[in-house]
Write a structure and sequence with these properties.
With about 290 residues, this protein is of the alpha+beta class. It has four helices and ten strands. The protein has helices at about 5-40, 170-175, 205-220, 245-250, and strands at about 45-50, 65-75, 90-95, 110, 135-140, 155-165, 180-195, 200-205, 220-230, 245. Strands 5, 6, 7, 8, 9 and 10 form a six-stranded antiparallel β-sheet that branches. Strands 1-2 form a two-stranded antiparallel sheet. A hairpin with a 2-residue loop joins strand 7 and strand 8 (about 200-205). The relative contact order is 0.10.
């Protein structure tokens, strides 16, 4: 039987693999250089454009980490509306989501956050004589009443108002109504345009913006924001909603606090003991003015 050295066969395979790798790399380099030469020969101009390096949500100001510059062949798709300097788009607010690798175009941007400009209308919205008069209005809501502060620009929210209602004395004396706080869902499916700490800028018709301004100026109302699923376009029938303290007591059967001790008179006094309480024996030489030991 003929003996064959397996180690020699393995070395041959390794050498063949290295040679094939070198040939593949050389072929790839040749193709790239050929393409570059052909591009130069045909006069295709390379231009720098600003592109997104990650998915960018709408209504969120652009940051330096969101974009970069990429060299691409110039054609009709990047001849206008593109940017070559990334610093020119920092702080601008995209009105639509921008995907990774997608060029940042001028018609995607709503305005500058630093200049106080906020894109109120969606890209597909137009102004007509009968269209709503949309406005951006700010509302202050603490984090504990705004889903823990997790609400961000671009989300839709529902708004609950809690109003302090003070009734005339004659209505309270009638024995049916009482001054108290009243809570109710009042606005639904409101778009959050921007957020800074506890201030939320929402999109609202001008009459709703007027009502929100009045609520806040009166100092008698507080708001709660509820995150609304973007897929849920249903409008809740708020006519059956609304609650007060008395409603909650009746609905859940909460026990009513009672006067303790019972009765309208003075608090009962404990009965006197049959004998005087024992006192500590005075220590000879002690200060007579000292308080007795308990």
């Amino acid at each position: 039987m003929e003996y064959r050295d397996p180690s020699r066969r393995g070395k041959v395979i390794v050498v063949l693999g290295v040679v094939m790798g070198i040939l593949a790399g050389a072929a790839a380099l040749y193709v790239v250089q050929r393409a570059q030469l052909e591009a130069g020969a045909t006069g295709v101009q390379q231009v720098p454009i600003v592109v997104a390096v990650r998915d960018i949500a709408a209504r969120v100001p652009l940051e330096a980490a969101d974009v970069t510059v990429r060299q691409v062949p110039m054609d009709d798709s990047n001849a206008s509306g593109t940017f070559s300097d990334p610093t020119t788009v920092i702080g601008l607010i995209p009105s639509v989501p921008i995907l990774t690798g997608q060029p940042v175009l001028a018609n995607m941007l709503a305005g500058q956050s630093g200049g106080g400009t906020i894109g109120i209308l969606a890209p597909n919205e137009t102004i007509a004589p009968d269209s709503p008069a949309w406005r951006a209005v700010a509302i202050t809501v603490p984090e504990d009443r705004a889903a823990g502060g997790l609400i961000e620009a671009g989300q839709t929210v529902d708004m609950i108002a809690t109003v302090n209602i003070v009734l005339p004395e004659r209505l309270e004396e009638a024995g049916r109504y009482a001054s108290d706080r009243s809570t109710k869902l009042i606005y639904q499916d409101m778009l959050v345009l921007a957020k800074t700490t506890t201030a939320y800028v929402v999109k609202a018709p001008i009459n709703v913006a007027e009502e929100i301004s009045h609520f806040q100026a009166s100092g008698q109302a507080s708001f709660t924001l509820l995150i609304r699923p973007s897929q849920d376009l249903r409008m809740v029938d708020a006519g059956a909603l609304g609650t007060t303290t008395s409603d909650i007591i009746q609905r859940y059967g909460l026990p009513l606090p009672e006067v303790y001790p019972a009765g309208l008179g003075p608090l009962p006094r404990p009965s006197a003991t049959a004998s005087a309480s024992p006192r500590a024996t005075a220590t000879p030489g002690a200060d007579e003015s000292a308080s007795p030991a308990p």
